Amino acid sequence: MFEILKQLSDNQVALLGCLGAAGASLLLLTISYHSHGANRPAGRDLLKTQASRQIPDQQSERRAA
After folding, report:
1. Sign for the pseudo-dihedral over CA of 22, 23, 26, 32
2. Residue ranges per domain, the chain?
3. What's this model's pTM, rounded to 2 decimal places?
């Protein structure tokens, strides 16, 4: 692997470094975007949908009693 890098010129090594840095930043951006809860689709958040389903059931039971 190092033999291939030794054959490259300084400009080519710099270009590979820039492409690697851009790829790493895109990876971190993607991880950051998908880890934030507000960026998830509404149907995939099970806790909120289960909680909203339980509240009307509990209220209707209280009203009936």
Report:
1. negative
2. 2-64
3. 0.52
